[in-house]
Design brief:
The protein has 263 residues and is α/β, with parallel strands linked by helices. 29% of the residues lie in helices and 24% in strands. A hairpin with a 5-residue loop joins strand 10 (242-247) and strand 11. The chain is globular. One of its GO terms (molecular function) is methyltransferase activity.
Length: 263
């Protein structure tokens, strides 16, 4: 899972079932083997190590690795999956408003990068009845939860992909929109991951990032689990994405939209 930790800050008719199922599933996930589907694609080039810096002394919430002056945050493990399904999330983050704001089309192919339990994947799946959602995560345990919920709720347009720290494993030029919800700041290899995402986008395809506002000291999230607009724009520009707009419609998060050039 790429998303922020529980100490930082379903479809509605599925919510009670989802919460119970996830809690039960977590208890079993430590004993069961994990499995998920993978998609073959072009390999993603690994960046020159010089773009990253390692610091011996660093924030305890970080991994001691820096990219463009920003320390990379620790990843939330699958043990925190139930927190992603908390009933208060709609009130706290307004995910339904975010989904409306990104205006997906019924035929879109959407990549949910750092999908976790599929909280956004399943909500987006109902918006693309003639398309599909690629739920990407690096933790097999998270993808097992998504596969279970797919079967329980008879959802047939969500596909799981086991990515790696350097490659989201997206088919090239196949995705209309990639969404990253409180995930990007935890990428251990942000340059490589974003390069892979850009490769997976169709020309003109969009990247949507939701990140807690790093500019606002009153957003009570640990520092490394927030990002400023300026920092996000710098890092997206480095992989060739063009900033389109920022929608400040959410209580505490930026909703930033970038586009892959059509060239």
């Amino acid at each position: 899972m790429f998303q922020h930790c529980s100490t930082c800050k379903t479809r509605k008719d599925m919510q009670p079932v989802r919460s119970i199922v996830v809690l039960v599933w977590l208890m079993g996930s430590f004993m069961l083997g994990a499995c998920s589907s993978e998609i073959t694609r072009l390999s993603v080039p690994v960046a020159d190590a010089a773009i990253y810096q390692e610091h011996r002394f660093h924030d305890p919430d970080g991994i001691g690795k820096f990219y463009m002056g920003r320390e990379i945050a620790r990843v939330m493990g699958h043990e925190g999956a139930a927190w992603l399904e908390r009933p208060s999330r709609e009130l706290e983050e307004r995910p339904s408003a975010a989904i409306v704001a990104i205006a997906v089309q019924p035929t879109d192919v959407i990549a949910d990068i750092g999908a976790g339990t599929g909280y956004f994947s399943f909500r987006l799946s109902s918006k693309v009845p003639k398309g599909r959602v690629l739920a990407v995560d690096i933790q097999p345990e998270m993808l097992d939860i998504i596969e279970f919920l797919k079967q329980e709720n008879q959802v047939n347009n969500v596909e799981t992909i086991l990515g790696t720290e350097t490659d989201p494993k997206l088919p090239p030029n196949s995705v209309d929109l990639a969404i990253l919800v409180d995930a990007y700041h935890e990428f251990a290899y942000p340059y490589e991951m974003m390069t892979g995402i850009v490769q997976g986008l169709k020309p003109g395809g969009r990247v949507v990032l939701l990140e807690y506002r790093g500019e606002n000291p009153f957003v009570l999230i640990k520092r490394l689990h927030k990002m400023t607009q300026r920092q996000v724009k710098r890092e997206m520009q480095a992989v060739g994405l063009e900033w389109q707009e920022t929608k400040e419609i959410l209580p505490e998060q930026h909703l930033m939209i970038f586009r892959k050039p059509v060239v």
